[in-house]
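Summary for the funding panel

The consortium committed to producing paired sequence-structure records for every protein in the target list. Below we show the first two records in order, beginning with the earlier of the two.
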Amino acid sequence: MKALILAAGFGERLRPLTEKTPKPLIPIAGTPALLRMIRSLEAAGCTEIAVNTHHLADQIQDFVASHDFSIPVTCYHEPEILGTGGAIKNLEHIFCDAPFLVVNGDILTDLDLGELRRVHERAAVNGATLVVHDYPKFNNVLIAGDRIVSFLSETGTDYWAFTGIQVVDPAIFDFLKKGEFQSSIAAYSEMMAAGLRIGVWMPENLWWHDMGSFEGLARAALETGALQVFAKSQGVVYAKDLHVEELAGGGSARQWRRLTLNSQSIVSVDHGLAEGPDWNEADAYNAIGRHLHESGTPVPKILAYDRFAGLVFAEDLGDMSLEEAVGLQGIEKALPLYEQAVKNLARMSVRAYEGFDPAWTCQTEYYDEALILEKESRYFFEAFVNGYLKRQAKFKDYLPELQLLAKEAVEGAHPGFLHRDFQSRNIMIRDGQCFFIDFQGGRIGPAQYDLASLLIDPYAALPQAVQDRLIDRYLRELSQYRSVDRQAFIKRYQYCALHRNMQMLGAFAHLSQNMNKPGFEEYIPLALQNLKERINLFPQAPALQQLIKSLELPKTKKANC
């Protein structure tokens, strides 16, 4: 049996992506959909494949020419796009002598195309056999028994969706006109009106994805990528056995999912489609994550990375975070986990710094004065002081003091690897062991910042005595790798804690007010209380002291929090 792959379309719903890349050449888990379909047709026993082209035809032609296939694969250019029916009529000289396969070039499926051919041969049809399935979004094909009654725009219980996969009888050529734009669906309707029978096949557990939309493209990449990961450890796998579970996210826009197949599970981190060749957050997550794992840091092992789709597949660490462990066990019983976390944090600061390439970072390469002033101090003023509390404080009036405080936090600091968001929600617990996640913001900076992020974290609200104990534990571990001046370390720690405190208030305000994540608002009162106490340590910033001490939550905010 010969086959036609329809690959001429403009991909309108995928603009601007398809302005430079034809839809069939969009990579899905690293492999273009066109190549996947050609391989499926080869496996089905097809003897020849035709590919119609129009939009960005040269790219498709060059792609086909660059591969050695086991059967002839030939591109046929349409100077004027002909539609699905017109494309079939245009190639009548190839397909006029026997039934042939026609498949859309923008779908992914695990359908046995050889079995479709056999279904058609066994069926009492003289027009075509279309593969249909239950897909509510596109259910507009009315079925009666094993044949199609009509193609309508309405939906109902007897309606199914056409998959874009079909075996067509040469009889169709009598219902198409050469050189005209035509729809194959219109031709099928005319064939039925003339008494020809259009049959259907409804295979069970069909895995099928339409790449015609960004939503469909993302889902196809997710499931295909996951299946490839599982195949590495399990061998032959079946898409029907794949289960996808949406997981709750944190303060970022990324989507987390758990994918399970045959009792094995992995986690995907979805950053969204890459917008171009520039280094991005997904790149940083992948590169930094692999480096941390190689350095011996307890992080999830990265199993695969699909740069185009922005998908990272990683080891599943379960659902228990350090924050949740504290909530379930209480601080005293969870203290061994904290001690383990700070021990590994000290080790990460030193070992992950070795061989760390600043080019891996997606924000800034270093935690420096400029970052503190822009992303922490200004963020605090704009998002919290003026945005959340509706004050009218002018950042420039406090800039001299803020510059001094920023300088003290970083000047002369011993460089190390910095996670930058090291708090109890980003530490997972599995089998009594701590693992660090959300490391894509990693860079070079002072070790004190990550320690402060964990200890003043309002999610867990550690008592000061516990914080002091953990600082001692951290310093004992850090001294195993380098000399430590305790007094100097603590002094810099206080500056880092101040900046982290301001940063978190800015973040809580922004996330709750602007990102529709109201749950973060409940941590504002404690974070503000801590800041008011912490600012007393900095008499060299009297204006900032006065401002912070004057900050009060309105009664409505206190009630909501």
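The next record, for a separate protein in the list, is shown here:
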Amino acid sequence: MSESSNRPELYERAFEQAIREHKDLRLHAERGREFLFVARELLTIPEDVDRVSRKLRDNRVDNERGRDFAGMVRLVLPRNPDEIPNIVRLLRDPRQWPGERVPFVQPHHAVVGHGGNMHGHPGQPPHVGTPLADPPKGSEGRGKGVVVGILDTGISKTAATDHPAWLGGAFVPKPDEVDAAYAHDDVFALEGGHGTFVAGVVRQAAPGVRFDPEKVLDPSGLGTEEDFARALSSFDEQVHIVNVSLGCFTQDDVASEPIRRALLKLPKSVVVVASAGNQGTNRPSWPAALPDVVGVAAIAEELDGTRAPACYSNFGHWVKACAIGNRTSTYLKGRWVLPGDPAVDVYDRWAYWLGTSFAAPHVAGRIAETMTTHGLSATAARDKLLTGAPFFPGYGILVD
């Protein structure tokens, strides 16, 4: 990709424009406390819904019950589309509930892909990549029999024919889980190809794995907690590992309750790996910061082979592992065009991208490879891989 000093700024502006144009999403832009939320929607839990609804009416806030999901109750506030953060702040105030337990409430948060960065931090679209050599002969046993669920933008409908050595036979394409990829014609959307790229990273570590892709994000890299919960419950076969190269910030950094509840429905034998996010902060990103999730930060590998925590990577005590975040992987044919940038770059099925989105699937693939190499369950392979390796404080165990 053509190098441009203002490309990160243009990429961020394009994300912000996508949010402004989204009819249902809003950005709470308080510096250092940013999060995206669904307009008009408030989430609570069944045991609290009556008290919350009554308190809203007492404060002249009209509300009606919407469709439940992931054990959550959705209240729709038709007259207050943009006031959800202020209403949540009011309802979380103990002074509103003298002598009572404060009920659980939260916005309906949006989730974003972690291939690009938002809110004033470095990030850029992929670079044109050099094709990788085919997997080494005999490597197909690494990860054989392991199924990795991928929650992302989907996988390209041409992935198996574009990359027969890497993705052929790895998954069964489903029409509703195809990576739409393009904004129009052959011009990529902001995170078009993200899921296809992630799948290739997993298979580089474990060429024998199969995938069950489920779509959470649109081609701009935007989805919701409801999309996450729906996708997580839609796997066609029993998965051993789930890769989640996306996440969300939340109001007051409170754990996302719908995401937490959705993950609790998975068998305990399933390992979930999630990217930590690319905002260069220690704010928790969900689901990566949940206790039973392997949150993955990014390490940058320079041309001389030196490694250090990537400047864009999120970090913190909640991060359990790290891996190289700048990688070449499977992609699609098409063009990248950013508004305000005269450069037009043409892709031929390969890309080079950086982000925690691409550190996480390497860890997922290495867990799959460890399962088959040592005859271990997913949880035992995870524990083996995350024990005794080099450790970066705040970034976790390094997984090569």
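Regarding this second record: The mean pLDDT is 94. The longest strand covers residues 326-337.
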